[in-house]
TrEMBL record:
Entry-linked NCBIfam families: thrC
Protein name as catalogued: Threonine synthase
Top EC class, one word: lyase
Gene3D superfamilies: 3.40.50.1100, Threonine synthase, N-terminal domain (3.90.1380.10)
Keyword terms, alphabetized: Amino-acid biosynthesis, Lyase, Pyridoxal phosphate, Threonine biosynthesis
GO biological process per UniProt: threonine biosynthetic process
Recorded catalytic activity of this chain's protein: O-phospho-L-homoserine + H2O = L-threonine + phosphate
Necessary cofactors: pyridoxal 5'-phosphate
Transmembrane spans: none
Organism: Pseudooctadecabacter jejudonensis
Protein encoded by which gene: thrC
Pathway recorded for this protein: Amino-acid biosynthesis; L-threonine biosynthesis; L-threonine from L-aspartate: step 5/5
Residue ranges of every copy of the Threonine synthase N-terminal domain listed in the record: 3-80
N6-(pyridoxal phosphate)lysine carried by residues: 112
SUPFAM superfamilies found in the cross-reference section: Tryptophan synthase beta subunit-like PLP-dependent enzymes
Amino acid sequence: MMYVSTRGTAPKLTFEEAMMTGLARDGGLYVPEEIPTLSTDQIAAMAGASYEDVAFTVMKPFIGETFTDHEFRNLIDTAYAGFNHAARAPLKQLDNNHFLLELFHGPTLAFKDFAMQLIGQMFQASLTRSGNRITIVGATSGDTGSAAIEAFRGLSNVDVFILYPHGRVSEVQRRQMTTPTESNVHALALDGDFDDCQAALKDMFNDFDFRDGVNLAGVNSINWGRVLAQVVYFFTSAVAVGAPLRPVSFTVPTGNFGDIFAGYIAKRMGLPVDKLVIATNQNDILHRTLETGAQVKEGVTPSISPSMDIQVSSNFERALFEANGRDGATVAEQMADLKDKGAFTISQGAIEMLRETFASGRASEDETFHAITSELTRSGELLCPHSAVGVHVADAHQSATPMITLATAHPAKFPAAVEKATGLHPPLPPHMADLYERDERVTQVPNDLAALQTLIKERIKQ
Ligand SMILES: Cc1ncc(COP(=O)(O)O)c(C=O)c1O
Ligand SMILES: N[C@@H](CCOP(=O)(O)O)C(=O)O
């Protein structure tokens, strides 16, 4: 299995090379040259299997010769051993035909742990073989950063720098990133929004002297390995409500489009998915894109679901690549227009293809608060604001097909919003109970590429 860039001109890579490379050298994102499919019998056999069994079946066709079956199975088992729920991704019934997929039972209480814990294992196995040392730089609106730090803290052959938007993540998210004491962890509070953090990260990848000089690696969903690991729970949950015998729809709280793109891959692999519903907060660029056929960037407005405060949605590029018939030149033009003019248009054929697969909706701040309050009454489930955006949008897309909404974070990561909506203060789990007493260590940085690169180079010399 080889991987190709969405912009068409970077070299083809193996799974391991694509995983360790991050952004393609033409600025694009790596995707598999072909998307493997699973048979109906293989999907049916997932009923009653463990999460780890399903993970192996789903991911194995993508990894080529990178790991033997035995190695890969061990990496999967180790990755999920620290999860706080035997099912890893349990499914709760909210009402008759609406289910909630709880993805927050990992160590940092967000869905990012599913991929990041596995990527941590795969990176370590690869680095042990090669003897290389790498510098990970990650951009986060709150959850990727803490999950990455958790997966890579204390490793002697990895430095991990996390750029987060100063003042725009929740206090719990910030403390998760600023309180680890390991010297290979560097939390950087950038003077800007998440889009600025992600743009700086991509600029670092596109500066080949810097990239090669520090041996830059990426653990954002730029990295195909991140998307791949997230495909698994679409299978486990769909099978639990009747797939492959009956179709299922998903609503996915969306920002950088990685999670919902994983759902799209599951569909292409043969999972009977009816609709994939994009749920956005007031930063609704993706909802507007689907409605109008043009992507027009506006400023980011801070919300109570801060992890989705994103306008430049990185993985939408992967969807565009598919919608444009895998024409990398068109994608490269559209991405250049987005960067230079703040907008691009999608052809009629491509937007029709996107609308066949995806639906969309948005939740205002009031609707998000209301969803938290009313879900507590309806099912007793305490939602985080991101999951509440999902539930609000899903309720408007109900049909005879079962709907699964992804609950992407634990409510205890966003106690202020949850308490305002319900009067309840969700407690942190025992392993994080003293989070507020731990000392913080963070460097405030300007939104200036050269200054960031200098800081990173100096830190890794120490
Ligand atoms: C809690 C939470 N929900 C939803 C999202 C959106 O996910 P994606 O960026 O994959 O669309 C994020 C950020 O990625 C998140 O942290
Ligand atoms: N919401 C994310 C933003 C980064 O997304 P990623 O999936 O590309 O890592 C976050 O919480 O950091």
